[in-house]
Design brief:
binds nicotinamide-adenine-dinucleotide, binds zinc ion, 7-stranded mixed β-sheet
């Protein structure tokens, strides 16, 4: 079949909307009609060639939800018509790490533009095009592997719950599963974009009492308050370390979350964490950036993210949204058609949006 997809031909260049070819689903493939596709900071890293496991040409996009349109002959996990959120860490499903519930450690299926069988699916003429995170969400359809599909309830709006595919699951995983935040904790979040705002809302759900949000855009800080921040700091005009000292009686925070991905802000997070506290680095630092930290053993540094828990927690996160306990509507600053993808990236770079959701069929 033919469909429209946003293709990155070269790093640092605008995406081009192309008419691309998809084959019929292979035995374990699932064809998903994309309803909503969020534009995430990790897509920006792909655009800038900062994620070394992705080669161009590629269709970015990894925060997508849609409806199953067709399935391969061996697929049992989903059926035609099912509503699905696409998961970006499927793993091979048959190695020790995958059996242990840690597909993010799977040595057999890392991040590449290919599906499980090592082959790409999208073509422009004879040229093979990769799919980011085995998904390629900036397109009308995604031909994905069966394990990428996480079936969800059908009354949830797909153009909203698509955010659970990355930003929301990452916020949840970082707060509850990586950092293990306890009620009464004090916390700092540096970077209030689509992911950082989710870290804030789950800190609020975890009953952290002090939640300090840091950004350089006043509008993001306002949104941070809506999501549960108790204090906001504009890093463009205020010294973050001074502000944190003042707000924590000179002690530092129990938990700091870095959600931007620069060496300077990772170090900043480390420095304002109290002795014995924990730094969770959610940002995916570009290769080549080195962070030097003081040689103290009294603070823990860990990586953020949903890790291998996406399959377990995704339907639960949908339930939380439908129950009014998790905010998604507030995070969607703008909806655009597929050909608005470059404008969506420009909005993100300028700090004008938390998330843009692309609606490929409008
Ligand atoms: N670990 C994971 O599993 C995972 C999952 C999703 C995203 N990420 C990463 O998280 C990071 C953030 O993603 P996002 O979608 O929220 O991006 P985003 O662009 O929406 O958010 C980044 C925010 O940081 C702010 N900012 C920039 N420089 C700053 C500074 N010096 N001080 C304070 N604030 C500053 C920006 O204004 C923006 O609000 C990216 O590196 C992305 O790749 C990691
Ligand atoms: Zn595996
Ligand atoms: Zn993402």
């Amino acid at each position: 079949m033919q469909m429209r997809a946003a293709v990155l031909w070269e790093p640092h260049s605008p995406l081009r909307i192309e008419s691309v070819t998809l084959p019929d689903p292979g035995p374990r493939d699932v064809l998903v009609r994309i309803v909503g596709s969020g534009v995430c900071g990790s897509d920006v890293h792909v655009l800038h060639g900062q994620l070394p496991f992705y080669d161009c040409p590629i269709v970015p996009g990894h925060e997508a939800a849609g409806v199953v349109e067709a399935i391969g002959s061996e697929v049992t996990a989903v059926a035609t018509g099912d509503h699905v959120i696409l998961g970006w860490i499927p793993g091979c499903g048959s190695c020790q790490s995958c059996w242990d519930g840690h597909p993010e450690r799977c040595p057999n299926l890392g991040f590449s533009g290919a599906l499980y069988d090592g082959r790409t699916r999208i073509r422009v003429g004879d040229e093979a095009i990769g799919s980011m995170a085995h998904i390629g969400g900036f397109a009308e359809y995604a031909l994905v592997g069966e394990r990428t599909c996480i079936k969800i309830r059908e009354d949830a709006p797909l153009e909203r719950v698509c955010l659970i595919g990355c930003g929301v699951a990452t916020g949840y995983g970082s707060v509850f599963l990586r950092a293990g935040v306890q009620p009464g904790a004090t916390a700092l979040v540096i970077g209030c974009g689509g992911v950082g705002l989710n870290v804030i809302q789950f800190l609020d759900l975890a009953a952290a009492t002090t939640i300090i949000a840091v950004d350089v855009h006043p509008a993001k800080l306002e949104l941070a308050r809506t999501m549960g921040a108790t204090h906001v700091v504009d890093a463009s005009s205020v010294d973050v370390a001074d502000a944190v000292r003042e707000l924590t009686a000179g002690v530092g925070v129990d938990h700091a979350f870095e959600v931007i991905s620069t060496a300077a802000t990772i170090r900043q997070a480390y420095e304002v964490t109290r002795p014995g506290g924990q730094v969770t680095v959610v940002g995916v630092a570009p290769p080549g950036e080195e962070v030097s930290l003081p040689a103290t053993l009294r603070k823990t540094v860990t990586g953020g993210g949903p890790a291998g828990t996406q399959w377990g927690v995704t339907p639960m996160l949908v339930d939380l949204y439908m129950a009014g306990k998790v905010k998604l509507d507030e995070l969607v600053s703008r909806e655009r058609p597929l050909d608005g993808v470059n404008d969506a990236f420009a909005d993100l770079a300028a700090g004008r949006v938390a998330r843009t959701v692309l609606l490929p069929h409008t």
